[in-house]
Amino acid sequence: MPPASPARRRAARDKAGDGAAAPVLRLTHKQSGKEKRIATGFAWDLFLFAGVFGAPLFWRRLPQWGAVILALWCVDLLIGRLPLAEAATRLAEGALFTVFLALQLWLGFAGNRLTAQAYLRHGWSLDAPGNPGTKRVIERWKLAT
After folding, report:
1. Segments forming the whole domain that contains residue 80
2. Domain membership flag for residue 17
3. 23 in any annotated domain
4. pTM higher than 0.70, yes or no?
5. For the purposes of burial, counting CB atoms within 10 Å of the CB of 76, is it exposed (0-12), middle (13-18) or buried (19 or more)?
6. Is residue 95 in a domain?
7. pLDDT tens profile 26-71
8. Domain count, the chain
9. Which residue has the higher pLDDT, 8 or 134?
10. Measured over all CA atoms, what is the biggest interatomic distance in the chain, rounded to whole angstroms?
């Protein structure tokens, strides 16, 4: 008999309740039956690609943060069009780069938590709220279940 796949072993461990950590939160949508998995670690996609007009933020149902990224892009375009001295333009571009970098780092660390909160607000529910690892994530992220 072939060995069970890693996904099946993980599902069996989660059902048994002996999983020490919850590497992903599983959410289900009651009306449609869709399932969604949200990682509990660093959101690399947001860190690397949120600066691309905020596209991953809109896909994750975080339009307010996508709008912030778009607004920063508009400020960047405005800085290039304003008749400023070269030193002032460089200083403004450097400050804007710092803001972009800080925001993307913060989104990397907080993005998965924000995504889980957004999905829960939109009618999704946690699949296994009794799992000890899931309970820890709920407490750490202060999720309303």
Report:
1. 42-141
2. no
3. no
4. yes
5. middle
6. yes
7. 999 989 999 999 999 999 999 999 999 999 999 999 999 999 999 9
8. 1
9. 134
10. 73
